[in-house]
């Protein structure tokens, strides 16, 4: 009877999905760092080798190989296996094809290969280099899916296949995309690293110039190449190779993995829709000699302008995102160029050691037999006499082992020896073979005892491959500025949460990561920090907005929001000094998110010591590498907050202080000033107090005040009388040991949501309407439960799309 077990659905889904993802990662999508193959490619090559489909043998139907692979090795669909076989035969897909195909194996125009019953295939000579010595116990074998045969976990792989042919695949939660490289350059790099494993990555970069695609093309600039060589990740821009001939643009090479027919159609569609001017005719004159696409132009048209328009609007220019991810001991890992080559060298050394041990064992076994035959030949008359008088083979074998000090194997070999071996010539052959074997055994033992000899064999293999299969580069790397493909048009429009810590780490997280909770909850971890670090700035914004970073030295730097690093809740992010060109001892003290640099808006600054200043937003629209001056600061002062305000709408503002004070005034009390101005007094501070924030007064909103111990309240703006700037202000909240000093203020409406973040990185997201509206002379209610030693350090408003209205 079937037993039904009850399980928590979340746990079952989690475990099942994890099993599925690991199966995809290990069994389908990612290549091994050692032989550069995914399981399906490895099984195809192994099956063809096993069936004798060598490069010097006749072709066989592809259906034969497909049937053998799915029947014994790869329990998946026949089309998936055939598609993989076809790709390994296409000289426009692989830089160095591993299968020699006969028949229709598709084309760069996008035409599909013929059905496997029509095409024929066998191994290429290079594929045999991958499989060489597989029958010498050089790699581990495991049971196939039904236990009926053994299959290799990896191929011996004399060929550095992963680098010369590349790989691409999408697993679960990760992907790999490795470009192909030139065999000569890769072999030279392997030799150099064998000779000196401590070689600097820059020295390796000088040997391998960059990717070398089967379709040629031009790689623009070296920044992306250096990035992925050093980190395993990068983005390179590939352009078609073109010539200007008699006023026409001639395309002779196109970017890797681009469909030629689709490219021509996209250019034609662009011409039809007036997306590009000047092209009168498009002809494809490609033939067996090579590619030739002719774009005829109008007379007196600037061909460079047309070409630049085509680069911008078609796949004549294409981005290739590199992720050098592969499997090491069934663990996915991103490697840089040097690490990848070192892993290949490690694999080759292991293969050479295992091959040498295998050959040593075989040589010793054969030498042992020959030693027995030599003994028999030296005592031929007694041996023959003993055999003749023995009643059977078993008695003869025992007699030989006892009388001539032979092993059972030696005795058996003597009994099976043919009489012709007794001739003088045959005896000399046995002795010669024995002596040769002794030399080979000595050689094998010397190899196993010497790392230098093993290294020499690895180098010899690379020199052999370079001399026999190496060719010239096809892809040209051109000088010039790298093209930034991470433009606004390619960025998904979404709201994000950005945090900046006191020690200068910044990151962005999608807003929907933080689910809404009721007030008084404990929140979730928002960032992982060192004990001595804490969150200083937290705000929500659109990822296409501009971020202005105001520093303690009175400067402003800016980034686009999408340029900030994406990270999970538990990551601390990236050091801001790697994104902004900050001076020594320069620290970000305020951050402002704006949609653009409109002339209708101003920036309103408030400093810790109460100075206030208003400057037109347009004065900050031309940033410099090292930032520009934003405000003149007096000693021991710094910018606390910067607000974006409209120039023409008269607004009222509230300044709040750490000890619970507040001052409401009109923005017209602050005249416009230049970027370098120090500003005027905004609020007169009492002893030991400082400004913690400034907010705009909205007639349909209220002022949220949050304290360090997680308490807070909303208060209607009517309770704050309007005064002039420069005064001491009035009581905003009662500050006591219970609720702590003020952490921040925000103008909110009922429909808003609020995010609070603690010093230890805990974040809570709550609706503003859940927070009580009470008077100024109160302590507030609990908004967030804090652990011992923790405190609220910053607050953010999730929905801030206000239409700013006058306060009256």
Q: Would you write up a description of this structure?
A:
The chain contains 17 helices and 41 strands. With about 800 residues, the chain is α+β, with helices and mostly antiparallel strands. The chain has four domains: about 30-160, Topoisomerase II, domain 5 (Alpha-Beta Complex), CATH 3.90.199; about 240-315, 2-Layer Sandwich (Gyrase A, domain 2), CATH 3.30.1360; about 340-470, Topoisomerase, domain 3 (Orthogonal Bundle), CATH 1.10.268.10; about 490-795, Neuraminidase (6 Propeller), CATH 2.120.10. A four-stranded mixed beta sheet has the order 14-9-8-17. A four-stranded antiparallel beta sheet has the order 10-11-13-12, with helices on one face. It has a four-stranded antiparallel beta sheet with strand order 21-18-19-24, with no helix packed on it. Strand 34 and strand 35 form a beta hairpin. The longest helix is centred in the middle third of the chain and has 42 residues, at about 335-380.
């Amino acid at each position: 009877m079937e037993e039904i077990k009850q399980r928590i659905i979340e746990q079952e889904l989690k475990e099942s999905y994890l099993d599925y993802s690991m199966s995809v990662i290990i069994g389908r999508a990612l290549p091994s760092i050692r032989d550069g193959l995914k399981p399906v490619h490895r099984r195809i090559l192994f099956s063809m080798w096993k069936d004798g489909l060598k490069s010097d043998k006749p072709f066989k139907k592809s259906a034969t190989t497909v049937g053998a692979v799915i029947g014994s090795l790869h329990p998946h669909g026949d089309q998936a296996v055939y598609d993989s076989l076809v790709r390994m035969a296409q000289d426009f897909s692989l830089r160095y094809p591993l299968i020699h195909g006969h028949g229709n194996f598709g084309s760069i125009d996008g035409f599909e290969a013929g059905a496997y019953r029509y095409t024929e295939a066998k191994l290429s000579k290079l594929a045999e280099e991958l499989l060489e010595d597989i029958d010498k116990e050089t790699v581990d074998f495991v049971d196939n899916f039904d236990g009926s045969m053994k299959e290799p976990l990896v191929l011996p792989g004399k060929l550095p296949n992963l680098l010369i042919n590349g790989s691409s695949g999408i697993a679960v939660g990760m992907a790999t995309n490795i470009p192909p490289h030139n065999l000569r350059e890769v072999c030279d790099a392997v030799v150099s690293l064998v000779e000196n494993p401590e070689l600097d990555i820059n020295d390796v970069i000088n040997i391998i110039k960059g990717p070398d695609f089967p379709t040629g093309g031009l790689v623009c600039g070296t920044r992306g190449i250096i990035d992925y060589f050093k980190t395993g990740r990068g983005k390179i821009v590939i352009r078609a190779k073109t010539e200007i001939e008699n006023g026409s643009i001639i395309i002779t090479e196109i970017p890797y993995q681009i469909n030629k027919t689709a490219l021509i159609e996209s250019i034609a569609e662009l011409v039809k829709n007036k997306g590009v001017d000047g092209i009168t005719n498009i002809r494809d004159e490609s033939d067996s000699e090579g590619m030739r696409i002719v774009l005829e132009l109008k007379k007196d048209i600037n061909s460079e302008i047309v070409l630049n328009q085509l680069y911008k609007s078609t796949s004549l220019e294409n981005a290739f995102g590199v992720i050098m991810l592969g499997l090491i001991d069934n663990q996915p890992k991103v490697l840089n160029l040097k690490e990848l080559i070192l892993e290949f060298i490690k694999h080759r050394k292991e293969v050479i050691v295992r091959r040498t041990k295998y050959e040593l064992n075989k040589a010793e076994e054969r030498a042992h037999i020959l030693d027995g035959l030599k003994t028999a030949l030296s005592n031929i008359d007694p041996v023959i006499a003993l055999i003749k008088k023995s009643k059977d083979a078993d008695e003869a074998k025992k007699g030989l082992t006892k009388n001539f000090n032979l092993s059972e194997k030696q005795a058996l070999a003597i009994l099976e020896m043919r009489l012709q071996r007794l001739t003088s010539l045959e005896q000399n052959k046995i002795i010669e073979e024995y002596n040769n074997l002794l030399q080979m055994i000595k050689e094998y033992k010397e190899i196993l005892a010497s790392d230098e000899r093993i290294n020499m064999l690895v180098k010899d293999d690379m020199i052999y491959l370079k001399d026999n299969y190496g060719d010239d580069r096809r892809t040209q790397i051109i000088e010039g500025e790298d093209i930034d493909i991470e433009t606004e048009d390619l960025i998904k429009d979404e709201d994000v949460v950005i945090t900046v810590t006191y020690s200068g780490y910044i990151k962005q997280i999608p807003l929907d990561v933080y689910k809404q909770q009721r007030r008084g909850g404990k929140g979730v971890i928002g960032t992982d920090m060192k004990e001595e670090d804490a969150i200083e700035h937290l705000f929500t914004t659109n990822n296409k907005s501009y971020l202005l970073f105001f520093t303690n030295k009175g400067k402003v730097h800016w980034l686009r929001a999408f340029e900030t690093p994406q990270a999970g809740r538990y990551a601390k992010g990236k050091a801001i000094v790697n994104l902004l060109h900050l001076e020594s001892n320069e620290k970000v003290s305020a951050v402002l998110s704006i949609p653009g640099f409109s002339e209708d808006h101003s920036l309103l600054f408030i400093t810790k010591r109460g100075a206030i200043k208003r400057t037109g937003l347009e004065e900050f629209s031309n940033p410099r590498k090292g930032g520009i001056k934003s405000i003149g600061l007096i000693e021991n002062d710094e910018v606390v907050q910067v607000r974006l305000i409209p120039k023409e709408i008269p607004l009222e503002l509230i300044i709040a202080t750490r000890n619970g004070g507040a001052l409401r005034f009109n923005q017209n009390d602050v005249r416009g000033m230049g970027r370098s101005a120090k500003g005027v007094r905004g609020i007169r501070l009492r002893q030991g107090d400082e400004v913690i924030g400034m907010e705009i007064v909205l007639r349909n909103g209220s002022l949220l005040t949050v304290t360090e111990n997680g308490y807070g309240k909303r208060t209607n703006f009517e309770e704050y009388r309007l005064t002039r700037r420069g005064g001491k202000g009035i009581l905003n909240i009662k500050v006591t040991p219970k609720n702590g000093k003020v952490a921040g203020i925000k103008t909110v409406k009922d429909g808003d949501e609020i995010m609070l973040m603690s010093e230890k990185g805990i974040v809570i997201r709550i609706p503003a309407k859940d927070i009580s509206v009470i008077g100024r002379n109160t302590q507030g209610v609990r908004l967030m439960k804090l652990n011992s030693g923790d405190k609220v350090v910053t607050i953010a408003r999730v929905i801030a799309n206000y239409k700013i209205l006058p306060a009256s």
